[in-house]
Amino acid sequence: MINDLEKVVSLCKRRGFIFPGSEIYGGLANTWDYGPLGVELKNNVRKMWWQKVVQERNDIVGLDSAILMHPKVWEASGHLAGFTDPLVDCLSCKKRFRADHLLEAKGLKPDFEPDNALTDIRCPECDGKLGSVRNFNLMFKTFIGPVEEQTSKVFLRPETAQGIFVNFKNVLESMRKRLPFGIAQTGKSFRNEITPGNFTFRTREFEQMEMEFFVKPGTDEEWFETWKNFMWEWFNNLGVKESSLRFYEHPKEKLSHYSKRTVDLEYNFPWGWGELWGCANRTDFDLKQHAKFSGQELDYRDPETNEVVVPYVIEPALGLDRAVLAFLVDAFEEVEARSGEEDGKHETELVLRLHKSLAPIKVAILPLSKKEPLANLAKEIQADLSKEFMTQYDETQSIGKRYRRQDEIGTPYCVTVDFDSLEDKKVTVRDRDTMAQERIDLAELKNYLKDKFNN
Ligand code: GAP
Questions:
Q1: pLDDT of residue 341
Q2: Which of 41, 93, 338, 454 is the most exposed place for a label (fewest CB within 10 A)?
Q3: What are the b/e assignments for 438-450, b being 16+ CB within 10 Å?
Q4: What residues are paired with 416 via a beta bridge?
Q5: This prediction's pTM
Q6: Parallel, antiparallel, or unpaired: how do β-strands 18-20 and 32-34 relate?
Q7: Residue 252: exposed, middle, or buried by beta-carbon count in 10 A (0-12, 13-18, 19+)?
């Protein structure tokens, strides 16, 4: 784990994980593009979430709902009226701040009335006078069709959850589900954040992985505990150190309008603890609101007792970009130059100790010579392995440098093809973490690697 975020940002740019958005035009502040390795890492994180939340369970199904939804959705959900942050401008330097954050930083309760000025607080940047507090809605607006008028106004969704609630009946009926059951989806959400920052931690366009678990009222508190523990175990099973994780219980007076209880799983990022995954008991708020605004019944009839209930909802909601950032920070390790492999030019090396299932490249194929017949054999090996794994072929520079390049991007195994390989039909497999090297029969190689990734 690293406590200097800049080193992670620099690795991400240098090695093709994450680039600044629109860079050739001078960038667009706080936008980020995932590069060739970043997209693999992000896909792997999403895949591991989907595997545990959907694939391995009989009681949860998937969904992929539209980003643009009927504007009434956001009236019903409370986002139109209440999804706001208190914004304050400095009258001198014109910088913008979250009013609640400024008060909290001074140890004061974030109590204020909109349109009032913050008394006794000056601009943290230039000590200038601050203007009055304005509530700012975080939803991005756009228009459907060519005419920009009130009736064609729509919003980019600020959470994926509402797409699940509006499809509750569709899924219930088409999949013949019984309580308790869940609906999961991943996808982009948009929030016009006042203070984005800390790399990909808070951005205006991000991806969420949310699951709404519908339960019988009265069983909600028990299910809350189950999903809260699930969140911890998921990160821990993917290698995140327990000492970097903690739970944060939201105080009652700070709960969102829909929540009876919220607990966040937090990660100790280089700048301090930050929310990764929120678990909320949303009660029957959303289904009741959508029933009221749409005029449709969104309840559940128990097929055995005939009892009709509006289910309660437990919602574990995770940010994919934040999860990727936490995995990168947690895996980042600077080690002393490793014996026998250094070329004597530097004292420290970087090893990205990503969990094998998350590593963007699973196997690197490294021929000791660029020339035939070795290159031919190495390419044949890559063609075969690439049917099973994400691979990379690297033939340039010394083998020590090539190992280091793979360590930096977290590749768990390197397969070295040497001159003996032509004779004995064996290759050397080198392990990223232990640096142990094993000579493996080519005929056994794929199964050997499959075993390694399954254990
Ligand atoms: N449906 C509930 C919901 O959206 P949230 O706590 O606002 O709850 C869930 O968001 C998760 O989405 C957060 O825990 C965080 O990981 C991620 N997230 C929220 N805002 C974000 C932002 N501006 N940038 C990146 N990730 C964000």
A1: 52
A2: 454
A3: eebebeebbebbe
A4: 366, 428
A5: 0.95
A6: antiparallel
A7: exposed
| Pair of tokens at residue 383 | 């063609």
Q: 186 in ligand 1 pocket by Cβ < 6 Å?
A: no
Give kind and range of the element (H or E) at residue 431: strand 426-431
What are the phi and psi torsion angles at 127 (to 5°)?
65, 15
Ligand 1 neighbour 313 (Cβ under 6 A)? no
- Measured CA to CA, the distance from residue 364 to residue 198 in angstroms comes to 32
Determine whether the shortest distance from the Cβ of 323 to ligand 1 is under 6 A.
Answer: no
Q: How many residues does the chain have?
A: 455
Q: What is the DSSP string of 219-237?
A: SHHHHHHHHHHHHHHHHHH
**Residues in the chain with pLDDT < 50?**
342
Q: Report the atom number in ligand 1 closest to the C-alpha of 161.
A: 1
Centroid of ligand 1 to alpha carbon of 440 (angstroms): 46
Best residue among 136, 166, 322 to mutate for probing ligand 1, ranked by most atoms within 8 Å of CB: 322
* Helices and strands of the chain, counted as H and E runs: 14, 23
Cα–ligand 1 centroid distance for 204 (angstroms): 10
Distance CA(176)–CA(183), nearest Å, equals 13
**Going edge to edge, which strands form the sheet with 181-190?**
60-62, 181-190, 205-215, 312-319, 272-283, 261-269, 245-249
Does residue 96 contact residue 134 with C-beta atoms inside 8 Å? no
276 lines ligand 1 (CB under 6 A): yes
Q: How far apart are CA 161 and CA 256, in angstroms?
A: 14
Closest CA to ligand 1's atom 6: 278
Q: How far is the CA of 208 from the centre of ligand 1 (A)?
A: 7
